[in-house]
Design a protein that fits this description.
The protein is an alpha/beta fold and about 400 residues long. It has 9 helices and 14 strands. Helix 6 packs parallel to helix 9 and helix 8 packs across helix 9 (about 365-390).
C-alpha cells in the first residue's frame, strides 16, 4: 500500500556530514571581500588569515596562551601533522570507536610503528573504557565520532596533572560542544563541519605543553616540509599568526571568516551549541515515538548533537542479512534524495547500515523536524516494495 506523502518539506534538504550545509542566508556575495589574485603573504592576505585566527579564538573561546594555526589538508592534515611531529616521546594510548579513530590507530601502529602504543577499541555505538587510560602516556581520541554519532560526554576522565599530551580530533565537535581546553593539548578540526565552511584547510590548536614538546623533542623519522612546525628547535610562530606553510585558498579563508562572523550573530559558542542541541532534540523526539528507529549511540549521554546516526530496528529488517540491511538503508536514502527532501543521508561506508543526519549549527531545526516524517514514509515505501517482491 502506497504511503501518503508528508505535507511539509525541508526548506533546505542538505544534511550531509561534510561538507556540511552553508549558514542560513549564505550567497556567493559573502565572498566579495576575498583577497583574490593577491599573494597570501601580502599585507591584505596576511590580515585576512590573521582575522580568521582571531575570530576562531573569540568564537571558540580558546585560551589566550594557546596557539591557533591554519594548516593544509583539512582536519586530517592537522591531526597527521601533530602525530608525526610530537608522538614517540612517551608511550601512547589510542582510543577508537569509529572509522576516523581507527585511521589514527593505523597511522600509529603501521606507519609510525610506535612500539609503546596501547590500542583501546569499542564497537560502533559505544565508547572504550575511558578510565583505563594512563595519564603518563600520550592520548589520541576523537571528541565526537562523526561516523558513529558517539561522543565523549565530558573530559573529566582526563587527568589535570597528566604527564602525557592529549591529541583531540574535534572536527565534528568544535563549535557544537563545550571543549574542555585545560584538558586538551592538541586540538584539530576542519572548516567544513559545524560552520559549513569549505574544505581543504585544517585548524591546529596547541597548548603551551604541546609547544614545549615541539621545542624539546625531535622525532626519529624525517618530516616533510608540510609537517614542520619548528625551526632551529623553536616554534615557527608565524604559522600561528597567519603565515601559512603552503598557499591557502583565500576564497575558502573568506568563507570561513563569513561563517565565524555569522556565528557571532547567533550568540557565539553558546548560541551555536543551542542550535545543534535543538536539531538533535528534534530527531530524538521523533525517534522516541517510532519503534522502527533507534540511535546507534546506545547511551543518551554519549549521543552526538551533530552527526546523528540512526538504525532501522524493524523485525523484518532485523531478519535480513548484513548485505540486505545495507541495501535497505541505501534504498531509503535514495528515496529521500529522489524526493528532494534529504540529501547525503546514507551512513558512512564502514558504519552499520542506517542513516546519518547532520544536525550542526548551520541546519535549521524546522528542516530537521520536516525531514523526520519523510524518513518514516521512505522506510515504509521500501519495506512495502520488498514485501510485494517476495
Amino acid at each position: 500500500m502506497t504511503q501518503t506523502l508528508p505535507g511539509l518539506r525541508p526548506a533546505n534538504p542538505q544534511f550531509s556530514s561534510g561538507p556540511c550545509a552553508k549558514r542560513p542566508g549564505w550567497t556567493p556575495d559573502a565572498l566579495k571581500n576575498a583577497a583574490l589574485g593577491r599573494s597570501h603573504r601580502a599585507k591584505l592576505g596576511k590580515s585576512r588569515l590573521k582575522r580568521a585566527i582571531d575570530l576562531t579564538r573569540e568564537v571558540l573561546q580558546v585560551p589566550a596562551d594557546y596557539r591557533i594555526g591554519i594548516v593544509p589538508a583539512s582536519d586530517t592534515g592537522a591531526y597527521e601533522m601533530a602525530m608525526w611531529t610530537m608522538l614517540g616521546a612517551r608511550p601512547v594510548d589510542c582510543l577508537a570507536w569509529e572509522s576516523f579513530g581507527e585511521g589514527w590507530v593505523t597511522d600509529v601502529v603501521k606507519q609510525l610503528k610506535l612500539k609503546d602504543a596501547r590500542v583501546m577499541k569499542a564497537p560502533y555505538g559505544a565508547l572504550p573504557d575511558l578510565n583505563a587510560i594512563n595519564p603518563d602516556h600520550d592520548l589520541l581520541f576523537t571528541w565526537n565520532g562523526t561516523t558513529s554519532g558517539v561522543r565523549v560526554p565530558h573530559a573529566d576522565w582526563i587527568a589535570a596533572d597528566r604527564k602525557g599530551l592529549t591529541f583531540c580530533d574535534a572536527t565534528s565537535a568544535a563549535f557544537a560542544q563545550n571543549l574542555d581546553w585545560p584538558k586538551l593539548d592538541v586540538t584539530t578540526y576542519s572548516w567544513q563541519k559545524v560552520l559549513g565552511g569549505e574544505a581543504a584547510h585544517g585548524m591546529l590548536i596547541l597548548s603551551p605543553r604541546a609547544v614545549e614538546r615541539l621545542e624539546s623533542y625531535t622525532p626519529a623519522w624525517p618530516l616533510p616540509k608540510i609537517f614542520r612546525l619548528t625551526s632551529g628547535g623553536k616554534l615557527i610562530e608565524g604559522i600561528f599568526e597567519g603565515e601559512t606553510i603552503n598557499t591557502p585558498s583565500m576564497l575558502c579563508v573568506e568563507d570561513y571568516i563569513d561563517a565565524l562572523e555569522w556565528a557571532k550573530t547567533v550568540g557565539g559558542l553558546k548560541g551555536l551549541i543551542a542550535r545543534c542541541d535543538a536539531n538533535a532534540q528534534a530527531v530524538a523526539d521523533f525517534v522516541a515515538q517510532k519503534p522502527f528507529l533507534e540511535f546507534l549511540a546506545k547511551d543518551p549521554a554519549t549521543r552526538s548533537n551533530t552527526s546523528v546516526c540512526l538504525n532501522f530496528v524493524d523485525p523484518v529488517v532485523g531478519a535480513m542479512s548484513d548485505k540486505d540491511q545495507a541495501a535497505f538503508a541505501k534504498d531509503v536514502a535514495a528515496k529521500l534524495e529522489k524526493q528532494g527532501v534529504g540529501l547525503d543521508l546514507g551512513s558512512y561506508r564502514d558504519a552499520p547500515p542506517g542513516l546519518r543526519i547532520w544536525c550542526g549549527a548551520t541546519v535549521e531545526t524546522s528542516d530537521v523536524a520536516a525531514l523526520m516524517p519523510w524518513i518514516e514514509w521512505a522506510f515504509h515505501e521500501v519495506k512495502t516494495s520488498l514485501a510485494k517482491a517476495a
